[in-house]
Every structure is written in C-alpha cells, then in structure tokens.
Design brief:
The protein has about 350 residues and is of the alpha/beta class. The chain is built from 9 helices and 17 strands. The N and C termini lie far apart (about 40 Å).
Length: about 350
Amino acid sequence: MDGERVLSKARIVALSTVIPEKKLSLQELAELYGDDYIERITKSTGIKEVTVAAEDKTSADYCYEAALKVLKETGLSPSDIDGLIFLSETPDYIIPNTAAILQERLGLPTNSVNFDMRLGCAGYVYGLFQASMMIECGYCKNVLFLAGDTMSKYTNVHDRSLKMVLGDAASATLISRSDNPTPSMYNFFVDGSGANSIIIPAGGCRMPIKHGVTDVLEYDADGNGRTLENVCMNGMDVMVFAINQAPKLINGLLESTGWSKDDVGLFALHQANKIIVDRIVKVLKIDKDKAPFNIEDTGNCGFVSIPLLLSTYYSGINSDLNKVIACGFGTGLIAAAAALDLSQTNIIKTFSV
C-alpha cells in the first residue's frame, strides 16, 4: 500500500467472538409460519438456526466475555489498555454510555479514552478505522474494540422476514501500536436517504415510546407483524444497496492498494444472507472459496458477522492472510470496506456462553 490514506502504525493483535449458548432452529417456527415458508427461507438465506441472547444478558455482557478472552490470550493486563470503543445498536442504556460501564467492569484505567459507537452492519470496519486512528495519532498504545448486538430483543416473533434471519453475537478486537505494524486502508459510502430501510421507529427522541401507540402490533402487505418498537427492514432496498455499493467500494480499494483480486487471500463480507453474498461474489468475479459463507448456524449477526467469519474459519495465526478485504453494508444506508493485513493476528476460535 502506498499513499497518504494508509494507516501505518497499528496492528490488529487479536480478536475473539462469542455467541449465546441458546439457538432457535427455524423448524421450531414451523407451526407459526408453515413448513413451506421455513423451507423457502432456509434455501434462500442459507440459515438453519439463529443465536438468541439470554433474557438477562445484554450486548455488553457478551462483549465483556470476549474481552476477557482477548486479554487472557494476549497476556495483557487491563492496565495496559488506554482506549475502549463499544460498538452496538443495543446498548445497556440511552444514558450513560455502555463503554463507561465496561471500563469499570474490566478494570481499565480511569484515564483511558472511552466512548460508544452506534452503527449497523458497516460498524465493524468503522470501529477498526477509529481504533487505528487512535493509534495513528499517537494518543493510544492499546485499543480494545468491543462490538456486539442482541437484536433478537427487538425482533417481533410475528415478523417472519427477520425472526428467522437475525442472530446475536459479540466480539473483542485488540489494536495496538507496533514496531512491526500491519498497514490498513479504508473506503466508505453513506446514503442517508435510505435511513428508513432498516429502522426501529420508536424509542428515541423523534418518537418516544407511548403505550397504546408504539406497542400496537400491525401487519404489512407481506404478512409480517411488528410494532413501532421493533426493528423493521425493507429487504429489497438493502439488497439493492449492498449489491450496488459493496463491489464499488471493494474495487475502489483494490485500485488504491494496487492489489489484484488474485492477490487477496480472503474477502470477508458481511454475512447478510446467502443471496446477497453470492451476488456480490458474482459481480466482483471472484472465487467463491475466497468469500466464504458461514451463518447457517448463527443467522445474520450484523457487524459481528465479519469477526465471526474469521473466528469460525481462521482461528490461530494465518500467515497467508496478509491481504484481506473486509466489507460491511446495511443500516444507514452505510457501506465500508477495509484492506487489512491479518497475518500476525491471533484469531481466537468462537466460543459460547
């Protein structure tokens, strides 16, 4: 990589991913949705079961477990961490920021940089960018980037389009200043005109929760039932956005880095569903083996799907992952791509709690 847009001082040292022990098999919904519908969705999305967070656990709880695993594997003390980022669309509270709560739980220094990020499926790439910038500017030496969502808590059981697709998961990634850094480069796109394509309408200041108004179950033209307090997605809008913008971002990044598609060892695409991943692979004209699909047993875990893909297939040190393209796309509508060197990254095998 050459050029002024390269981040050249940081290294992605380690990452871990955790999933809930509980899973919901799509077959369990057959009585509610019908066998034919279950079969059709399974075939089109590639998903057979989704992970479901425990009622008493939040995204922060799962991120906490992932963080402990990274600290243990790297041998770092909490006192070594001088930056903490918590990425989630399902934080513990509106106020305060969840990162502050995790600082205390993990025992991180009180003078560490500490903040939340609220982004959707492009969030993991954004988080890596932000953490790397904190290293690049010289302020931080070790940034712990925690990313997790428990979207099942906002999915209505009567919404067939999402109940059988969205899963819960969390991750922890350590980015550090290094004498042997692994340079990275990024590419971004946002189209806020599509903000309503994935949205939870009620619960913020624009539409406060109101009993008898925002909690009323209503059905759309496709027979999907939800309230204004549930997540709502226009799947067609998101698919068109992903298929159009993800390849453009990736091709632009390849041009900037000087990498050819053959040079890239892995295209770590956001695991939305099989249709979208397959279409992006087709548009890019790349080998399917370089863009694996792995959410059959977890569902679409949002931005965590990228580290989940890595920790499922590439645990350990993989010296051949010196050229990796990661790309997330969705809520916003936002897309982000990164050119990464993960050849020195300790990728910890996915575990459950």
